[in-house]
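FIELD: query
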Amino acid sequence: MKLPTYITLIRICSIPVLIWVLTSSRFTSVNGQRELLACAVFLAASLTDVLDGYLARRRAEVTTLGMLLDPVADKLLIAAAFVTLVQFNPRVVPAWMVVIIVGREFLVSGLRSIAASEGFVIQASNLGKLKMGLQVLCVLAAILEHHWAYLAGLPLYPIAVALIWFMVALAIWSSAEYFYAFWRRVENASERRRRKRSFVLSRRRKRNDVPAT
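FIELD: result
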């Protein structure tokens, strides 16, 4: 395996570490030690997403395995973080919001898989590209808010709540955008198939209508 793929695997392996830090009784929130450690693990894992892609392009080491694992690692990391936060800080991260945010990931993955089987690609939207950065900020704010009411003079609770509401709105909007793009491509593909079928049938009729000599 190439180095970028190893880095992607490190991101996947960091997921159980993050869950363990947030849920294990071995860690306490005295002086915010648990929160700081969880933020460090999550932030380091998130940065590997940038690093593996950069190295894969820079070293010309883009592989099929890496292309498969990278989006899976991203979705697993974000889903694990939000699901764990439902238990860790439910007053900021309620379960129904996590269902929408994580459900959006499954919906987009499903649409892309169906599109690939039909022979076309759904390009990532600008909202989709913005999503990862906002998700990282949202998770970090929700973790830190568990211990601190203020950080650098900023009230963490309203910031964390505003971020997760924005994430929910973004998830709904980007899901609708992806579904519209998918449906438009399916409709165009169906129209092309209908035209091709009509053309073939018309050619057959013409051949059948030619009188025998």
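FIELD: remark
Residues 156-209 form the longest helix (54 residues).
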